[in-house]
Amino acid sequence: MRYTLEVDFLEAVKGARKRITLPSGDNLEGAIPKGTADGQTIRLRGKGGEGYGGGELACGVGCVSWDTTDCVRGALPDLVITMDEYVLYGELTASVTFAFEEAPASFVLADIGADSLKTGMLHSAGVINAVAQVVEEHAKDLPLAVDPVMAAKGGQALLEPQAVKALRSRLIPLAHVLTPNIPEAEALSGEKITDKDSARRALEKLGGLGPEAVLLKGGHLPGAIITDFLLLGGDIEIFESPRIDSRHTHGTGCTLASAIAAGLAQGLGVRDAVERARRYVQEAIRAAPGYGKGHGPLNHAHTVKPFS
């Protein structure tokens, strides 16, 4: 059986007391600790009845589940919150339910509006379906750049395996432009990419998923020249530029997709938006501030004039 415990994002961050009434009429209550973390155990206390069997609570900060097979009258076992990751402007925080994930985007689109949309790391099928529904209901006429982020720069997987199907079937068909890198294109197309010919084959398969355009980012291919492939209107155009020798390339793919979305918002066509975005990212790499000893960030502010 499934029950619902309403816990919103701020309650999870700041802490709150919650209460739930089971179908039996018994009440459970307790505190959601401030800054609830993944896997943290909380106690909801109350008088337990008989015959609960197994149960599950779906709450705003994740899935609360417990095993009541050993439950005895007068006590209930602890409830364990296991949380997914929720993407908020590129940062990872506690996950939220479908309704909460959908609400902020709907509110923003209805109030402020938007000129283009861009998606990045959407790690689960639930999140992808929520985003797709928002696009279908509130932003179907807006250009959408889908960056199918699946792994971090260091190779860590960011997308759950079961989410790939939702990405292919629900979100990519809504895309104005899809912007995979080589590993992402291989995962989505099933085509091993080692050269220009295999890149073209992968592009054709990705185009068959339904996006209006596909930009295959070729930075993972070896060589002194970086080659990107744009599938648009059935034709493939190649963009080439010298590879910049720098370890400060953290977020290049996300930056490129965002810059494309900015160009689309300003009324540029896909090709012009891609061309300008590539120039922007190249200069952002050249002007990187050089922070840290690993993959450092780009200089996204290189277009901003110094204040006098």
Tell me the layout of helices and strands.
Elements: E1 2-5, H1 9-14, E2 16-21, E3 27-32, E4 41-42, E5 55-59, E6 62-66, E7 79-82, E8 85-88, E9 91-94, H2 98-111, E10 117-119, H3 125-138, E11 144-146, H4 163-171, E12 177-178, H5 182-189, H6 196-207, E13 213-216, E14 225-232, E15 235-242, H7 252-265, H8 270-286
Parallel strand pairs: 1-5, 10-11, 11-12
Antiparallel strand pairs: 2-3, 4-7, 5-6, 6-7, 8-9, 13-14, 14-15
Helix pairs in contact: 2-3, 3-4, 5-6, 7-8
The amount of beta strand, in percent, is 15-25%
**pLDDT averaged residue by residue:** 74
Strand order of the largest sheet: 1-5-6-7-4
Which overall shape is indicated by the principal axes computed on the Cα atoms?
A: globular
**What is the first-to-last residue Cα distance?**
64 Å
Number of strands: 15
CATH class placement of the largest domain: Alpha Beta
Report the biggest beta sheet as strand number plus sense, adding barrel if it closes: 5 strands, mixed
Share of helix among residues? Answer: 25-40%
Q: Could you tell me the CATH topology label of the largest domain.
A: UDP-N-acetylmuramoyl-L-alanine:D-glutamate ligase
Low-confidence stretches: 47-101
Return the string of H and E elements: EHEEEEEEEEHEHEHEHHEEEHH
Count the helices. How many? 8
